[in-house]
Amino acid sequence: MGLIIEHHHADRVEAAIGSGQAARSALVASWCRSSRLHCLDPSGVRPPLRLTEPEVRQAIEQNELLIGAARFAMNRLYHAVGAIGCCVLLASREGIPVDRRGAPADDPTFERWGLWTGSLWSEEYEGTNGIGTCLAEERALTIHRDQHFFSRNTLLSCTAVPIYDGHARLAGVLDVSSCRADHTETIANLITLAVGEAARRIETELFRHAFADARIVLTPPIDTRGSGLLAIDRDDLVVGATRDARLVLGIPPDRQLRPVPAADLLCREEGIHERLGDAQRATLQRALTRARGNVSAAAKALGVSRATLHRKLKRFDLKPLA
């Protein structure tokens, strides 16, 4: 019976590839890449590729920053989905799971399926699948059961979201996979939301690490992805932007970000007319605010005399705070 189902799936994949649907269907386009570009056979029965122990250690070492940034989010995500028979995988940009969470009772099943640290899930090797196709297309997606390319993977359901590093470069994939057949569409939608939220948390950690000395501010939210992040240095220059922030502000995701005044990015519609006096006035205002209106304390913090500060306050029509 299983052999009949496998042949039926392989025939269906081949028919879809030959039908010319690739231009209208992202799924069929992935099947085409798997077959024509990577020369894979949907009825292939070879087992998942497992890296050697030295190769696994090397992959983990190369992704230490990603693993560290993902630890809390993965724990939180697994707490949400582990009880319904799912495992959580963190894969490198090569499609190698470098960390995972799973219930001990389910581990033998997931290891047999290759949902394990050190397996290779690139689209080039495994055809259409959650991790590999997410990397190939750089978008969040779910590959549910018979949407997989290989017949041997059609019992899996995988939801994957790309993760970008602090410089908006693809860093890896966060994936939730299950072998259960009783997951409803409602459960699948909830998993999708949970994985997306966890991926954004990981990106935030990577961004904060990349710009540890900068001030981090939020951009307006975009669609369902939430707000992006900007890193602003002490000179009020934007020196970093997450991928979501770049989408909001019209910055090409793959372009190197050159420092730009924060006001130029965030207040473009109002127009910017800066004068030197504006910067001096802002400095005085901040000093007074920090000193809670105490002129002597503000003068000391600025390194000027009380009399000099009074003259400058009068010049800019500033009054000590009450």
Describe this structure in words.
The protein has 322 residues and is of the alpha+beta class. The chain has three domains: 46-204, Beta-Lactamase (2-Layer Sandwich); 211-266, no CATH class; 276-315, Arc Repressor Mutant, subunit A (Orthogonal Bundle), CATH 1.10.10. The chain is built from 13 helices and nine strands. The strands form two sheets. Strands 2-1-5-4-3 form a five-stranded antiparallel beta sheet, with helices on both faces. It has a four-stranded antiparallel beta sheet with strand order 6-7-8-9. The mean pLDDT is 89.
Order of strands, widest sheet: 2-1-5-4-3
Radius of gyration: 26 Å
Low-confidence region ranges: none
- For the record, the CATH class of the largest domain is Alpha Beta
Oligomeric organization of the protein chains: single chain
**Could you give the distance between the termini?**
84 Å
Shape: elongated
Number of strands: 9
Number of helices: 13
CATH topology of the largest domain: Beta-Lactamase
CATH architecture of the largest domain: 2-Layer Sandwich
Name the CATH homologous superfamily of the largest domain.
Answer: GAF domain
Which structural class is indicated by helix and strand composition?
alpha+beta
Order of helices and strands: HHHHEEHHHEEEHEEEHEHHHH
Largest sheet: 5 strands, antiparallel
